[in-house]
Amino acid sequence: MAASTYDDALKRLLVHEGGYTNHPSDPGGPTNFGITLADYRRHLKPDATAADVRTMTLGEAKAIYRARYWDALRCDELPAGVDYAVFDYGVNSGIGRAGKVLRRVLNLADANWAVTDAVLAGVRAHKAGELVRAICDERLSFLQRLKTWPVFGAGWGRRVAEVRAVALAMANKDRLALPPTAARERDAKASGKAVVPVNAPAQKTTAGGIAAGGAAAAQQASESGVRPSIIIAIVLVTVALAIGGWFAWRWLQRRRQEAAN
């Protein structure tokens, strides 16, 4: 398997994980880029605080993901698609569970989670697509049994469905079927992950500024005795420009987030 698969897998994973969050229902506590405070303490700074997690750099997060998740699960030696399914599961629910589930779907003993040579041999004896489906089926079933499913279930369900679709496309070498890595705010909110906050000043200079200017123009026209039909036209044009400005602003924000990943 090409090592470059890691870059694509990480980009997709970071879309799901989002930025800093400290959701009261998330047992992980302070989390950034999907890295919890406990993970940050374990791998980088033993006495780290929530503030350290908040200011974590993307480079630090990538280093942790590569060494402590991707390499630990020997994803470079797994077939395309299986690697992504196992990696994303390991980040979301722990490498211990991901490794044991991989063993379980291969009908191997799951007393430990290590991805051994015997596990790799078992993987090679199966079709990648079959393993992806089995892993994702077990993952969804496990998540549905958690007491936090009512809080995060909608986001988790969509995440598993997207991982399944992407992993199957990877397994089938179907690049055209790969969904884009664009961030989805509704998924991040539903899964308890933070979303990059709206830049209020920037928003004011687009839709807000257009709306304010249009309102002022309409008011001035009204005070000048301009016919109602013309005032209505000013309002309609202003609304159209404001909507267009808002969509342009949102497109620019998504482009910046993707570039940052």
Shape: globular
* End-to-end gap: 22 Å
Q: Structural class, from helix and strand content? A: mainly alpha
Question: What is the CATH C level class of the largest domain, in words?
Answer: Mainly Alpha
Q: Return the domain count.
A: 2
Q: How many separate helices? A: 12
Which consecutive residue ranges, at least 5 long each, have pLDDT under 50?
182-224
In the CATH hierarchy, the architecture of the largest domain is Up-down Bundle
What's the order of the H and E elements? Answer: HEEHHHHHHHHHHH
Mean pLDDT: 78
CATH superfamily of the largest domain: Chitosanase, subunit A, domain 1
Bin the helical content.
55-70%
What topology, given as strand order, has the largest sheet? Answer: 1-2
Q: What is the β-strand count? A: 2
The radius of gyration is: 23 Å
SSE order and pairing:
Blueprint: H1 5-17, E1 31-32, E2 35-36, H2 37-43, H3 50-54, H4 58-70, H5 82-93, H6 95-105, H7 117-124, H8 128-144, H9 149-171, H10 185-190, H11 200-223, H12 228-260
Antiparallel strand pairs: 1-2
Helix pairs in contact: 1-5, 5-6, 5-8, 5-9, 8-9, 11-12
Structural write-up:
This protein has 261 residues and is mainly α. It folds into 2 domains: 5-190, Chitosanase, subunit A, domain 1 (Up-down Bundle); 200-260. The chain has helices at residues 5-17, 37-43, 50-54, 58-70, 82-93, 95-105, 117-124, 128-144, 149-171, 185-190, 200-223, 228-260; strands at 31-32, 35-36. The protein has a two-stranded antiparallel sheet with strand order 1-2. Strand 1 and strand 2 form a beta hairpin. It is globular, with a radius of gyration of 23 Å. The protein starts with a helix and ends with a helix. The relative contact order is 0.10. Mean pLDDT is 78; it is low at 182-224.
